[in-house]
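In the previous chapter we treated chains in isolation. Here, by contrast, the input contains three separate entities that must be folded as one system, with a combined length of 701 residues.
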Amino acid sequence: MNKEISKTTIVVLSGKGGTGKTTISNILIEKLQSKVFIDCDVDAPNLHLVQKTNVKPIERGFVGLPKYKILQNQCIHCGICYSLCAYQAIDKKNITYTIDPYRCEGCSLCYVKCPANAIKEIEQIDGHTYIYKEEDKLFGTAQTNIGAGNSGKLVTEIRNQIRDENRKTEFEIIDGPPGIGCPVIASITNTNYALLVTEPSLSGLSDLKRIIQTALILKTIPVVIINRADLNIKLSTVIEKYLKDNDIIYLGNLPYDKNIIQKNNLEQYDEESIFFKKMNEIIKKLIELINKEKEI
Amino acid sequence: MKYILAANDKDVLANISPVFARAYYFAIYDTETKEVKFVENEASQSQGGAGIKAAQIVVDLNVDKLIVMRLGENSYNVLKLTDIQILQTPSDSIENIFTNCENNELDELENISKGFHGHA
Amino acid sequence: MVMPKLSIAFLSGKGGTGKTFVSTNFANSIESATYVDTDVEEPNGQIFFPSTDISSKNVLVKIPEFDREKCTGCRACVDFCKYNALIFIKRPFLVAEVCHSCEGCYHVCEHGAIKLVNKKIGEVETSIYNGHEIISGKMEVGQMSGTPIIKSAKETATSDLIVVDCPPGSSCLVLEAIHSVDYCVLVVESTSFGFHNFKMVYEICKSLNKQFGIVINKYDGVNTLVTDFADKNGIEILDIIPFDKEINDITSSGGLISNKPLYATRFNKMYHNILKQIKLGDNYE
């Protein structure tokens, strides 16, 4: 009987936006020969733009909590809904009350308390999930609808759908969202490593500290890469020192490479460039680290 | 004694559902009557907090033991407030699992899957 | 001439395009402008306006607490909660992580058995820099939603020109940040990712009927995805800022390029372009 290869899940995060998560996720998927990968930046997914897909995705609507609407011809203008809404989602113009669908969080209190039954429930599609199923790879992505408040749940949904496909892989890669909120938390849970991509700026360091904290709380091992390190060598050094002082694993840095930003897929990248040479070193270090952890 | 597990088909020969919170049904076995009953799992339709709601349903059914393949943190945190014993099983038919449970062949659940709202 | 109260939001869709860079320098270049950082998950605007005198106020939301004596076990609260944040095991319990602070359980309890208590989810910090009010919303690590913090940060602003630095993306956080603003500046990066995500916030502005314009940042002089789109759709381009080493050096070290007169003039011009555009929309005398 074959020994089952244990899976290592790596989520690529940054705290700060625009540091290179998707670009680096894309390279990792190729270099680690990942057969299962997910774009969890559901508010602004980009991985599908650089992944070559040969099939049409299986699309599913993701139904969120219903929202509510006031039926004006039944409303008795008592203002009870307005006084109860904890989200200030009800607008008042003279005696006319309307619910702002972008502020409404679907708690249903107005619906339950309206003395005139003048509030209607409206089903909401909060977003869509897309699964690209191919023989040698399984790719999941999702997109929230504008203003949808359920990014975190959509992340959980696409991760669950991918999990239920039961595809075997040695490395599962998750391209994560920016920030530290709901969708990030949903991307980090049940992963082994959080690969944090930062940039050499005070903003980058400030955001990095908060995402490291988030990863540690959720018991995922943070490992850090400084991208575009040569744009501010002084700050790169400051960040390296911070990581060393706080016992956070530092994998290395990458130079700013104009070509990487403008190219759309891996085939156009130059493997001889310094960027790629350093990327290969980083990946080697990462694999060594993972193998060492497995032995423990 | 009453045992419960999550199922996706109303058939004792079908396998246990690998997921707990969003399975379509719960199967309940009574050691006295030796009967298996299926009830709908309302939590499967939940927008969020399905694990919590599923756990609440299990609590309200007054069972003694819950058998799962895997369990999320939200469900676990609710269940640990009760005296319900949580047991683990690999994939198998519902019938076999209940038999194994009655023969005390199942171990207690060890690993909890960290939930969407996982905290330290 | 007395300027009416005006709020301008800076958003981008994609992260890292330069919302904070443009908005901090914009605020710095206009007399008495207030800067509000609503990227409450990762606020870093404060870095550019260093101050030793920062006052802080807590942002609180309500969560339920149960009175065992008054509780009759009717479970109206548990049945009401859409988030499944309440469970009943001989008495009600709160699952705090999923509570959305809607206060609904308190209102549906007919036995007075629920009390609302405060829970801190973040802070709003205020300071002054060169005559500018600097306001920063900060969410506590591990919290789920920052919306109430964004509301509180915006409400704290007192001056006549409010510059709102938004979170990345297009989620409910962004919508809260641009709620009631008069104008939106879309800060775009001229790359395929940047263009793709820009289209999302473009759609938001259009569906909310917001007046808006574009600033193209870190422009490499080559990629015309955004300029072509802007030309085709009649979108106002407020400025095109090139990818520049000096800007990068100063900004990455936490400095404001608009402290140099040449750049201050440039950002001020952006402001007047906006005013011109808005006036054409008939809102101001």
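Residues 50-60 of chain B form the longest helix (11 residues). Residues 2-108 of chain B form a domain with the Nucleotidyltransferase; domain 5 fold (CATH 3.30.420.130). Compare these points with the single-chain example from earlier in the chapter.
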